């Protein structure tokens, strides 16, 4: 697996640091794109561009609720962000939707739950040939025909 891109706004520094420890403990390589900019869209767009380019296998973005970073990330062509608040959603984000960005809310999700979400998301892999593939392909087709780079 290629490295993971991670970033957050100042509201989520503590959670990001805990997630980085978890990544270290579980042998995941990553690059931290920072947390100083209060405009969460800046780090979300940067991380999403890097993931969409293929330089990173997946991304993790964190802000107060996770909503802002997920909206910003989904504006980048090739970035598919899923805001997850539980382990099942994190697994399905990957298994059913092939999401390449995980969004988390530092104010809405406890750190231990967030850690479990991250591990579930990173351990799951999208599988082609399932009934979800047709749904994912529809999104990709729409993106190809309606958005230029």
Characterise this structure:
The protein is of the alpha/beta class and 149 residues long. The protein has one domain: Ribose 5-phosphate Isomerase B, Chain: A. It contains six helices and five strands. A five-stranded parallel β-sheet has the order 2-1-3-5-4, with helices on both faces. Strand 4, helix 4 (87-95) and strand 5 (101-105) form a beta-alpha-beta unit. The mean pLDDT is 94.
Which helices and strands occur, and which strands form pairs?
Elements: E1 4-8, H1 13-25, E2 30-32, H2 40-52, E3 58-63, H3 67-73, E4 81-83, H4 87-95, E5 101-105, H5 111-123, H6 132-146
Helix pairs in contact: 1-5, 2-3, 4-5
Going by CATH, what is the homologous superfamily? Sugar-phosphate isomerase, RpiB/LacA/LacB
Shape: globular
Helix content: 40-55%
Radius of gyration (CA) equals 14 Å
Tally of structural domains: 1
Q: Which architecture would the CATH scheme give at its second level?
A: 3-Layer(aba) Sandwich
Highest-level CATH class: Alpha Beta
Q: Would you identify the regions where 5 or more consecutive residues have pLDDT less than 50?
A: none
Q: Quote the CATH topology.
A: Ribose 5-phosphate Isomerase B, Chain: A
Judged by helices, strands and strand pairing, the structural class is alpha/beta
Number of helices: 6
Q: What's the β-strand tally?
A: 5
Largest sheet: 5 strands, parallel
Bin the strand percentage: 5-15%
What spatial order of strands do you see in the largest sheet? 2-1-3-5-4
Gap between N and C termini: 26 Å
Q: What string, H for helix and E for strand, traces the elements in order?
A: EHEHEHEHEHH
* Overall residue-averaged pLDDT value: 94
């Amino acid at each position: 697996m290629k490295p993971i891109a991670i970033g957050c706004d100042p509201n989520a520094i503590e959670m990001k640091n805990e997630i980085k420890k978890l990544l270290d403990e579980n042998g995941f390589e990553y690059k931290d794109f920072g947390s100083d900019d209060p405009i969460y869209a800046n780090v979300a767009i940067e991380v999403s561009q890097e993931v969409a380019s293929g330089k990173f296998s997946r991304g993790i973005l964190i802000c107060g609720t996770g909503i802002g970073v997920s909206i910003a990330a989904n504006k980048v062509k090739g970035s598919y962000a899923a805001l997850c608040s539980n382990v099942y959603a994190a697994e399905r984000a990957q298994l059913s939707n092939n999401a390449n960005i995980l969004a988390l809310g530092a104010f809405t999700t406890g750190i231990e739950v967030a850690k479990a979400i991250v591990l579930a998301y990173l351990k799951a892999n999208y599988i082609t040939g399932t009934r979800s593939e047709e749904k994912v392909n529809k999104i990709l087709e729409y993106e190809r025909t309606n958005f230029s780079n």
